[in-house]
Write a structure and sequence with these properties.
Structural class of chain A: mainly alpha
Strand content of chain B: under 5%
Largest sheet of chain A: 2 strands, antiparallel
Main location (chain A): mitochondrion
Protein name (chain A): ATP synthase subunit b
Shape of chain A: rod-shaped
Helix content of chain A: over 70%
Subunit structure (chain A): F-type ATPases have 2 components, CF(1) - the catalytic core - and CF(0) - the membrane proton channel. CF(1) and CF(0) have multiple subunits.
Structural class of chain B: mainly alpha
Number of strands of chain A: 2
Strand content of chain A: under 5%
Family (chain A): Belongs to the eukaryotic ATPase B chain family.
Oligomer: heterodimer
Order of helices and strands of chain A: HHEEHHHHH
Number of strands of chain B: 0
Strand order of the largest sheet of chain A: 1-2
Order of helices and strands of chain B: HHHH
Keywords (chain A): CF(0), Hydrogen ion transport, Ion transport, Membrane, Mitochondrion, Mitochondrion inner membrane, Transport
Number of domains of chain B: 1
Distance between the termini of chain A: 146 Å
Chain lengths: 252, 84
């Protein structure tokens, strides 16, 4: 029953070897790895025990007598034996017989009445034990399955490593670009400042020259105006103003 | 199979002396035989999922018979009749 699924497990080479008698210090009374007995998992217990009739006589006895004597054979045998023992007083009837009869009747009554209850209770106890063991097994299986799923998820995550490194590379490239452009801007600004300085210098120089020249011309002109010319120019201005006022009065 | 490896129930009546000759009657042998017998009885009637009264009742009946046999000489004195 158990040996069939185990046959493909044992390698063929080991099966063909002769069973070793004693392997060094290890005194094995049965050969190792050549039998097909396996201690785990154990075969399940049989459901029901051997059939017993009237709680005392195994069914095999009835089957043993059936071919020769049919169905009533064992009963006839029993009756005959009983009468023989009683008549020859091989079985003596005394006070113990009465005691045995009372005890047996009480026992039989008790078993008939409470047998099923006790059986149900024992079955319930067994059920609970099996259920706890099964729960532990299922728990362990579930834990292992979640561990497997998490492991698979981690493996899937590992595949995304390349994307991570691509993103990092992009970041670094952007940083470099930014830095380069900043420095470019700095260079441009510096050059522009220097050029602006040169332009400002030239403008300043020209302005200074202009101012100086204007001042010099004004100074010389003012120096050249003699008092005589001043009086003449003032008289002329007065004459012009009178003429203008006349024209203005005429216009009004 | 060979005679020495068969169980008692599978031995035919004519082969019984030969089978008895192959038995190991040293103390270890007897002990091993008793152990095997008890194991087969236990596995058949007691070590099951849903046993019944049969497992121990047969043991108790056997004990009753054995004790009756051991006390037979004393019980014989309480017979009801002298001649059977």
């Amino acid at each position: 029953m158990l040996s069939a699924p185990l046959v493909p497990l044992a390698p063929a080479a080991l099966r063909s070897l002769p069973p070793p008698a004693a392997v060094g210090i290890l005194h094995a009374t049965r050969p190792l790895h050549t039998t097909q007995q396996c201690l785990a998992p154990l075969p399940p217990l049989p459901e029901k025990g051997g059939e017993v009739r009237y709680g005392l006589i195994p069914e095999e006895f009835f089957q043993f007598l059936y071919p020769k004597t049919g169905v009533t054979g064992p009963y006839m045998l029993g009756t005959g034996l009983l009468l023989y023992f009683l008549s020859k007083e091989i079985y003596v009837i005394n006070h113990e017989t009465v005691a045995a009869a009372c005890i047996l009747s009480i026992i039989i009554y008790g078993v008939k009445k409470f047998g099923s209850n006790v059986a149900a209770f024992a079955d319930k106890l067994n059920e609970e034990k099996v259920a706890t063991a099964l729960a532990v097994k299922n728990e362990a299986i579930k834990d292992l399955e979640t561990a497997i799923e998490q492991e698979k998820k981690e493996q899937w995550r590992v595949e995304g490593r390349s994307y991570l490194f691509d993103a990092k590379r992009n970041n670094i490239a952007m940083l470099l670009e930014t830095n380069y452009r900043e420095r470019l801007l700095t260079v441009y600004n510096e050059v522009k400042k220097r050029l602006d300085y040169q332009v400002a210098m030239q403008n300043l120089k020209r302005q200074k020259e202009q101012d100086h020249m204007i001042q010099w011309v004004e100074k010389n002109v003012i120096q050249s105006i003699t008092p005589q010319q001043q009086k003449e120019s003032i008289a002329k201005c007065i004459l012009d103003l009178k003429a203008l006022s006349k024209s203005a009065q005429a216009a009004v | 199979g060979p005679l020495s490896e068969r169980r008692l129930m599978d031995v035919r009546l004519g082969e019984l002396p030969a089978w008895l000759a192959t038995c190991n009657f040293s103390p270890q042998g007897l002990l091993a035989g008793a152990q095997k017998a008890w194991n087969s009885y236990y596995d058949k009637y007691i070590n099951v999922k849903r046993g019944g009264p049969a497992g121990i009742s047969m043991l108790l009946a056997g004990y009753c018979l054995l004790s009756y046999g051991w006390n037979y000489q004393h019980i014989k004195c309480h017979r009801w009749r002298k001649y059977h």
